[in-house]
Amino acid sequence: MAAPVFYLIPGLGADERVFQFLRLQGEVHVLRWLPPQGPAELLPAYAARLAAAVPEGQACWLVGVSFGGVLALEVAQLRPLARVVLVSSFTGPAELPWLGWLARATGLYHLVPPQLLPRLPRVAQWFFGVKNGRDYELLRQILRDTDLPFTRWAIARLLQWPGRATPPAIRIHGTTDRLLPNGATHSQYPLPGGHLIIISRAAEISQILNKLAAATEASC
């Protein structure tokens, strides 16, 4: 029996560091962000470039965190054997909070400098629901290293994304997520915590992913 294959897609402004506490039983790859081909590149085109790292015809798991979940859904359109798991993510604009709807409708997000949160780490800590200690220090490091042009492009694409109803996705979401508070009601696996449960609840998420993969392998 072949070992499961996981492709992990980090969230907006993040990198492989958010996955460092996962313990997955199988082959693990992180799909690293690519520079956008201009400010107007659309998500399907970007996802097609990202999907080049996933062999066609390979059965695998696409695990996307936050904005990475959006890309996981787009990549899955091109890789029909992939199963999607969304962590702290969403499937369409109907799940955005009212502030997201306002930004989407008005375009006000263009006026918010993406370098704001790195300069206000305690504000970011509150939004992401991160506790002091290890998790907060990791958040500070990720914010410090954020690629600002990519962040600007991604926010625009994220807020204008029409959503994907298919393929069906398995969802893991924090019950006190302040960025995407509606996600927990759509989740099969609600976990205590905020937006960065991929860090704070890595043990539980690892267990969920390993069980899902094992159950799928057993049914094949």
TrEMBL record:
Residues 8-205 form the AB hydrolase-1 domain. Gene3D superfamilies: alpha/beta hydrolase (3.40.50.1820). It comes from the Bacteria. It holds the Pfam family Abhydrolase_6. This is Pimeloyl-ACP methyl ester carboxylesterase.
